[in-house]
Every structure is written in structure tokens, then in C-alpha cells.
Amino acid sequence: MNTEAQHTERDRSSRPGVSEEISDTEGPEGRSRFVLVDRVADWLPGGWITFTALACLLFLLFVSTFVMQPFQIPSGSMEPGLRVGDRVLVNKLAYRFGAEPQRGDVVVFDGTGYFGNADYIKRVVGVGGDHVVCCDKEGRVEVNGRSVDESTFLYPGDSPSYVPFDVVVPDGTLFLLGDHRNDSRDSRDHLGSPGGGMIPVDDVIGRADWIAWPSDHWTRLTRPGSYARVPAADGAHG
After folding, report:
1. What is the pLDDT of residues 87-109, one digit of tens each?
2. Which one is catalytic: 13, 23, 75, 122?
3. At what angle do helices 18-26 and 28-43 cross, to 10 degrees?
4. Domain 71-227 falls in which CATH fold?
5. pLDDT on residue 67
6. DSSP letter, residue 6
7. 77 an active-site residue?
8. What are the extents of the domains in the chain?
């Protein structure tokens, strides 16, 4: 038994360079890519420093285009939660895989042709099929017969709406309001415009998930629990 074991060891050691040969047959393509990258880096002014900076910029561009994009708050329409100058991170994948905006979500959308030629940020109050009314006997917004307590995010001193409305949100669209109702131009102000103040879901850029700047205002934006008690619209699944 010992002789066989020793013979096996001698056979293995009698072929020097086997491991190196395996590495050589598996690596040319990888080494070729490395050489190409090295040549590109040498060609660029600044060499590897410039190459690394460009790679980082391309990565950030990819993330900003497809994953997460920063937006700056231009007005006080979403106060007190979002202040002028705040920068929010918008999750562009939030509604890309079958998910849809939910009541209470804060979303950024393209308002071209509906609100104006710009991007806007508002809170979703009604989704397709919802019956949204303001105001009930206690002065609150009502969705599908359920009054919504907006006290946790509504601007102090504001009423839920100074403009009465009674709308049914068409499928595939959203009814949106700002949290600072007395300083927000939103779905209420466009009820007589094309689209009736509703924004197509397809025009939503993403969901605002974080306040990223300033650092002392860093926080995650969550959906208020008051909307969880709203029943599904008649004929809708939920």
C-alpha cells in the first residue's frame, strides 16, 4: 500500500508545470482584457487616475439613469416633510417589475402636458378606480368612503383642501396632492385641464425613498399608515 502511494506521488511530481499549464489555458482571454484596459489607461491623459475617474462617472451615470436618481426640491409644496433645497433619492426601480404606485407614496413624475413642462414631486392620494372626495363632514379627504387622517404629514394650519373636489380616478392614472395644500399646484388645480388633473402611471419617474441632503435632515420616506385602512375601489382587487 505504501509503495503505491509513493509511486503516485512520484507520478504527480514528475510532471512539473501542470498547474501553470492549466492556468495558461484558462487565462489568455482574461489577460487580453487586462492588456486592453491597460492600453486604454496609458492612452488617456493622466493614465490610470483618469481611467478610474471615467469608470466611476460611467457607473454613477448608469445608477442615475436606471436605479437611483437625486432630485432637488424646488418649492415648499411638500413641506413640512420636504423643504426647499432638500435632495431626495428617487428609486427608479420601485415600479418597474409589476409593482404600481400606492396611496401615500411620494413620487416624482414628468408633468409635461398635464401640470407643466417639468418634473414634479407630490403624494399619491388616489390610484386607478378610487373615488376621492373633499371634504367629508369633518373636513378630511375621503377615499372610497374612508376618511384619511393626514395630520402626520399635512402642513400645520393647512386644511386638506381649499378647493372642493369629487373625482373618480381613471385606471392607469394617479390623483396627486402636495402636503402643503395652501402652497401646492397639484391635481386640484388641473381638474379642467387635459387629463382632468390625473397623471399617467407611465409618467412616474420613481418613488422618493430617502432625503439625502442636508445631512441633518437625512431620513427615509415611508408610506403613512393612514392609507392602509382605505378599502379597494369597487371592482378592484386589493
Report:
1. 999 999 989 888 999 999 999 99
2. 122
3. 60
4. Umud Fragment, subunit A (2.10.109)
5. 57
6. H
7. yes
8. 2-66, 71-227
